[in-house]
Specification:
The structure holds two protein chains of two kinds. Chain A is of the alpha/beta class. Helices cover 26% and strands 30% of the residues of chain A. Chain A is built from five helices and seven strands. In chain A, β5, α3 and β6 form a beta-alpha-beta unit. In chain A, α1 packs across α5. Chain A is globular and about 50 Å long. By secondary structure, chain B is mainly α. Chain B has one domain. The chains are: A alpha/beta, B mainly alpha.
């Protein structure tokens, strides 16, 4: 019997799970980033997702829905002392995969939007979607060999991001670099939710 | 562990589809709501005899809680199928939901402080 069954007062023994999304265009390094920080061998998870109709003149409550299967990169970080498993989901960012976001984003802490400076336009729809869902996100510029070094402010201008959205460069292969990105995301989410918390006491 | 574990499951075969159908007894929905982040672990009760996939799931969560997403990746089965199988095991009492010490609500400031502290402590 697992030890945790008998120790209900110990957070480590009663873990909860929280999702973090990692999104970006094809080949931007999502799988690499998840693999760099995951404590388990990164897995591929085949998930069914519901596709909401994009029909503009649909009537509320009568949206046509279809189900499709997508492959997600999956990795895990256990914060043992805090009784939490962070579940990392690397998800395709192309517009044709938007439909999966509603499912994935529900209950998620936030998203790491991975940007390749050679193809910044890939990020537009993702950024727009995060903003619409009010999902906290940070932009991580993956520094490839041969990628053009941009200044954060140039990326901010190009993606029309507000001052509040953090932008970081990272090396998706380096655990410490990925850790720094996730810390930035958690700090950002915390700041947003602190600001939104009603001042009742 | 299966050396192929984690490789994407290939649904583009008739055999694959038939196998899925037999795994779930033709069912297409779990008996209780589960999502990719649902965590389960083995209960203290002896599970009784289990067939292949149910036994695999049970043994994977004997010493630690795992999410539906992780189990699906390890078993190389679609999450939908794993949800059905996990729900069977929850119904029979062989598995239980990991009931977290606190509600893992991502908008809760106290939880986010824990996440942040945990990420900073992470020794890589």
């Amino acid at each position: 019997m697992p030890a945790y069954v008998n120790s209900p007062s110990d957070p480590a023994s009663r873990p909860g799970a929280m999702k973090i999304l990692v999104v970006g265009g094809y080949g931007v390094g999502k799988t690499t980033l998840v693999g760099a920080i995951s404590e388990i061998e990164p897995l591929t998870t085949e998930a069914d997702v519901t596709e909401a109709s994009t029909d503009q003149d649909r009537t509320a409550g009568t949206e046509a829905k279809a189900t499709t299967t997508v492959a997600l990169d999956f990795g895990r970080i256990t914060l043992l002392r805090h009784g939490l498993q962070l579940l990392l989901f690397g998800a395709p960012g192309q517009p044709r995969f938007w439909f999966m976001w509603d499912d994935l984003a529900t209950g998620a802490l936030g998203a790491v939007v991975m940007a390749d400076t050679r193809r910044l336009a890939d990020c537009f729809p993702i950024v727009e979607y995060c903003e619409r869902l009010r999902l906290p996100f940070v932009v991580a510029v993956n520094e490839f060999d041969g990628s053009f070094p941009y200044l954060a402010e140039e990326v901010r201008d190009a993606l029309a991001l507000t001052e509040r959205v953090p932008i970081r460069t990272c090396d998706a292969r380096e655990p410490a670099s990925v850790q720094a990105v996730l810390i930035t995301l958690a700090e950002h989410a915390l700041a947003l939710h602190r600001a939104q918390r009603p001042l009742t006491h | 562990m299966d050396p192929d574990a984690g490789r994407a499951w290939n649904e583009d075969s008739e055999i694959g589809r038939l196998r899925l159908y037999s795994l779930t007894g033709g069912r297409t929905a779990p008996t209780q709501p589960l999502d990719l982040a649902s965590l389960v672990h083995a209960s203290a009760a002896h599970p009784g005899p289990l067939d292949g996939e149910h036994r695999q799931i049970h043994s994977l969560v004997r010493t630690e809680a795992r999410s539906i997403a992780e189990l699906a990746g390890l078993l190389r089965q679609p999450a939908t199928v794993v949800k059905i199988l996990v729900a069977d095991l929850l119904d029979s009492g062989a598995l239980v939901h990991a009931t977290p010490y606190f509600d893992a609500d991502p908008t809760n400031v106290e939880i986010l402080e824990r996440v942040l502290a945990g990420l900073r402590e992470l020794a890589l």
